[in-house]
Amino acid sequence: MQVAIVTGATGGIGFGCATKLAESGMAILATARNEAKLTELATTIGDSEVMTVAADLTDDYAPRRIVDAAVERWGRIDFLVNNAGVGNPKPLHETDDDTLDYFLDVMLRAPFRLARDVLPHMQPGSAIINITSTFAVVGGLRGGAYSAAKGGLTALTTHIACQYGAQGIRCNAVAPGVIQTPMTEHRLADERFRRMNTEMTPHQRLGTVDDVASTVAFLCSPGGSFINGQTIVVDGGWSSTKYLSDA
Fold it and tell me: Hey, which residues does 32 pair with through a beta bridge?
């Protein structure tokens, strides 16, 4: 049985990734800060092999504790999905040092340390998937520390792919656009923000959690086994076109 670690597993995309990978027959170590929500996730996954670890990824010992728990339970780690993130960024001139440090800690330092700790336990055929953002692909208004962290995670992705690809360990990034999740629902309630994302996207709908989770699952499948060092953008064409609807 293959084993996947999913961070930020109680949020929209993380929850979707954990359940989708469990459906494919993988054992899941799900980690997030909220223990009650982790219990809800484990109940949703049901009969599949699942283990939860409540942890703040910015804690110094959290990555090692998560990796050790997976190895102790299953003796192997096949996939790491670095999904945990922070929303509501501000532009550079409005970002204080505490906010900068927190964004970088959650979305760059923690994935870096987790990847470093899982590598010794990965065999050929394993993979790391980093959830980045369209803001790591194109310039984004108000991106600030979020763009900096996600851009760093993109660079880390290509480094891992190059450094460890010869060992049979792949690394790719999945860059979602605006996806309907609890983290974005308050923004999508703003008509201007919603229209910017629907009427500038050639595919005339908003992205769903399953769009992202299915892409992650593909990268963990035999069908994705020759994909390495890539960023797969899941945004309906928003970032790669200059589409405007008739409206």
Answer: 54
190-211 per-position pLDDT tens digit: 888 788 888 889 997 889 999 9
pLDDT computed for residue 141 by the predictor: 85
User: Which domains, from first to last, does the chain contain?
Assistant: 3-180+208-234 (3.40.50.720)
pLDDT bracket for residue 6 (50, 70, 90): very high
- The pTM is what? 0.94
CA distance to 58, 135, 164, 172, per residue, from 140 (Å): 25, 5, 31, 22
Q: At what angle do helices 62-74 and 110-118 cross, to 10 degrees?
A: 30
**CA atoms 94, 99, 105, 107: torsion sign:** negative
3-state secondary structure (DSSP) of residue 242: coil
Cα–Cα dist 9/239, whole Å: 26
First-to-last alpha carbon distance for the chain, in angstroms, is 50
Q: Which residues are catalytic?
A: 146
Which residues have CB under 8 Å from 245's CB, separation 6+? Answer: 198, 199, 200, 204
Torsion of the alpha carbons at 181, 132, 61 and 124, rounded to the nearest 10: 120
Contact criterion met (CB below 8 Å) for 205 and 232: no
